[in-house]
Structures are given as C-alpha cells and as structure tokens.
Amino acid sequence: MKTFDKVYKIVHEIPKGKVTTYGEISKIIGFDPRVVGFALHANKDTANVPCHRVIKTNGKIADGYAFGGKHIQIEMLKKEGVEFLDEETVDLEKSLYKFNFLA
Hints:
The chain has 103 residues and is mainly alpha-helical. The protein is built from five helices and four strands. Strand 3 (84-86) and strand 4 (89-90) form a beta hairpin. The chain is globular and about 35 Å long. The mean pLDDT is 93.
C-alpha cells in the first residue's frame, strides 16, 4: 500500500467528534508528520477521508488547511462536537481519538 493510501485509511477511521494529530498518524505509518500533511493536502475524497479531523500535536489548528482555511476547519470540528480550549486549540483530553489498531 502506498504511503498516502495508508494515511487515508487511518484518517477514514477517525469518528465525528474526535481528532487525531499529524504526529500520531506519523507514528503509525513510520513517516515524518509533514508527509501526513502532504497526503492530506492531496486528498481528493473528503467525504471518506475527513482530513479536517487531523490537527497539530499541540492541539492547534494548522494555518494551511487546504479546504477553505483554518476557520472552516474550526467550524467543521465544532459542528461535530469537538471541544476547544480557546479559539484555535482543541481540548485533546476530551477529543483525541485513540486508535485500537495498527496500520
């Protein structure tokens, strides 16, 4: 399986109301978190690969969200019930998705 396809498979598993981080995905696939970012920017299937549910390891929303900017991403996450600590920081204690599989 190609690297980007591995990223998409993992991101597909993140349920509504939860997020994961570029770093968590990179640990699973064994590539730099930037590769995860590159894959998500190239995502053509946002209905099945909810890339808006991937954020920075510190809980912050990345500036370069490819599908309308970070304010769109924040709005989408809030609509799904993701909790925030402030305007741009997700409450990871409440919203981080814990994967129960190995890719």
